[in-house]
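Comment thread on ticket #2218

A.B. wrote:
> Attaching the input chain for the structure job we discussed in standup.
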Amino acid sequence: MGHFSTMFNGLARSFSFKKGRNSGSLDDGGGRESAKAMLKDAKRKDSILCTSGVLNSEGSDTFASVFSKKGEKGVNQDCCIVWEEFGCQEDMIFCGIFDGHGPWGHFVAKTVRESLPPSLLCHWQQGLAQAFLDPELDSEKKHQRYDIWKHSYLRTCAAIDRELEQHRKIDTFYSGTTALSIVKQGELVVLANVGDSRAVLATTSDDGSVVAVQLTVDFKPNLPQETERIIQCNGRVFCLSDEPGVHRVWLPNEESPGLAMSRAFGDYCIKDFGLISVPEVTHRSITSRDQFIILATDGVWDVVTNQEAVEIVSSTPDRAKASKRLVECAVRAWKRKRRGIAMDDISAICLFFHSSSEQEHHLVSPL
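C.D. wrote:
> Ran it. Output below, let me know if you need it in another format.
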């Protein structure tokens, strides 16, 4: 129980933010209040980054670089968030990237960005409390922490999609957003993906070179399991004649809305026809070989390969400029490879695991 006791002590600090207002309770009310309080406190301490820039707490080995560039289709519907010391835990960091679509897509993306981290934190608190009180818990099991996070993510995403449908100020019937996020807790990284953004890990091979490992699945409508679900729900999947190779989701009897992803928040016009907001939740244990993770919207991956992306980032001398350089390379690739097609919004987060000196060692010395 030692590991869970340490985390629970950290939570006790967070509850002190709301003394006298059910702060110690882990029910929906108290848990939600404490999570909102932690969000407010993190903003006050500048440990949250929601725009292009960098985030690195004093004494922390983790370093996050964020950059976003508007495309040629109107307002930028991409947005990001990095939250250090997530849940008042010194060894935890949360990163999320969101890609909106539709007339209200930028509002939907920002709404999910604001609501997902505190909601996840609330459900994680509840799961952690239940695990702490379970007399049969074996805290040495490798998957125990992951199981709590997975259950928390599933509950969070279901709750957010319900709340979006009832939102009074945002029309989500023909608008939505993807959501890709990770929580790094010590050596454990938990990933949750709704949509077609992608997470790619850069790790060091035996010969010292940098190798890309894709950590998530791009949920496109033409994936066999996604197509099967959509068809079973009477939705349709096909490409337009002027977009060969771009599979989209359509209503049964009209050529609308034509979504290029099979999972998203919002888009209630087609939620009964196969589109879902259920995340795929996976995990990985970070080792000394692993250097960084890239989270990026499809504006990057449409024109840059996984290997090209990790080489661009790893060859950038100043880590603070890593995400900006990756985005700029993607912009040039769009102009070169997709002439005549309006460039998409392009955004990336680069989360580094080790200090600069440690990274240099891994690059030149096989382990």
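A.B. wrote:
> Thanks. Noting for the ticket: Residues 45 and 286 are 27 Å apart (CA to CA).
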